[in-house]
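## retry 2 of 3
previous attempt timed out at serialization; input unchanged, resubmitting
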Amino acid sequence: MMPAYVSFFGLKEAPFSKEIADADLWLPSSKSAVVDELCEALSERGSAVLVGEPGVGKTCVLRALRHRLAPNSGFRLTYCHNATLGRRDFYRLLCHALGLTPSATAAGVFYAVTTHVEQLGHDRLHPVFLLDEAHLLHQDVLDHLHILLNYQWDSKALLSIVLVGLSELEDRLGRRHQRSLSSRLHTRLRIDTLVPADTAEYLHLRLARAGCEKEVFTSDAIAMLHEAASGTLRDIDRVATAALREAARRKKRLVERDLLARVLDLDAEREAAA
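## retry succeeded, writing output
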């Protein structure tokens, strides 16, 4: 059942849902450049680290990367986001993600993963492990990743790893005992928050794709929304959805500054009461 505001504004779907196809993801030029740099790093069989604050679009960048590196592109992408596991369970998770039957021992699961990587190399496929929430990686796992990247006496680049996480990940990688891993992460990227013009473009595009043929947010409401969301996509989605619901409840076809201010006040009250 569609929310009431969707029919009120004549939309065909909820405009700010996370359920959007990779091909329809919106990326500003700054994030498109990040995808370009990741593609270039992977084409050179390198590894990378990508950091940014919560909600700025790190996973969206990974989805755009997945779309860019289609199955016939010579890459095999494996995405993992359960970063709190110990080393053996981490490799067991990788085995499951790769379609392998994990062994009971730590050495066995590591051998299964590395043998699979080597087989993909023989098949002219380059595996890429995308490790999301990497700032939460168990220390034993982080300490072992440089070994996972070592093949044939460290003479072959058979695997790429992309570590994705919050800014704390940079601090962890900067520690002296992580230099073996850090030295293998040649590409280091950061995603920043949106600028106001990006927010306006994002709102317009998402509403247009949902079937809206006219502007719904006034310019001053967009400026207020951008400031309230601190330029993060996740909070923009949440606040914009709440504003549409409130506008529909009031039978208003336009989200103006005073209506958005009321939405933000209600949001603040709910947070204070939680």
